[in-house]
Amino acid sequence: MNIQSFRIILYIYPTLNIMNKPIYFLLFLLLLTSCADFIEYPLEKEYVVLKAPADSLITRDSVITFWWDTHQDAKYYRIQIVSPSFEKSEQLIVDSLVDKNQFRIELNQGVYQWQARPENDGSVGLFQERRTLRIIK
């Protein structure tokens, strides 16, 4: 049983009249622990911290791995990459849902900006930070 299920039990148990009925209590516990896997926690105020590549990176490497911290309640992550920036976007390179906290792509010479956010089946998080990189030849 995880800590969130335990908190729910502590909150709901006093309102139930099942203290003298242990079988109902056991069924109640089973139901709560079984449903914990289906509960989607809200992400509306949550975000991930970008790890790599560093902001304002200039590189000759055309294969770039984008990497960010995981979030405990995220099932997916949305990564967006544009060129040259989100404010002056000329080309949307990537707008994808991925199930890991990394994304690898080969990019042409140019300037790119990227961002990532956590998502699950019930909500989406925030794009908190944007980073820029330049690929040169």
Automatic annotation (TrEMBL):
InterPro entries according to UniProt: Ig-like_fold, Membr_lipoprot_lipid_attach_CS
UniProt-listed Pfam families: LPAM_1
Keyword terms: Signal
Source domain of life: Bacteria
Record bears the keyword Signal: yes
Gene3D superfamilies assigned to the protein according to its UniProt record, in alphabetical order: Immunoglobulins
Protein name: Type IV secretion system putative lipoprotein virB7
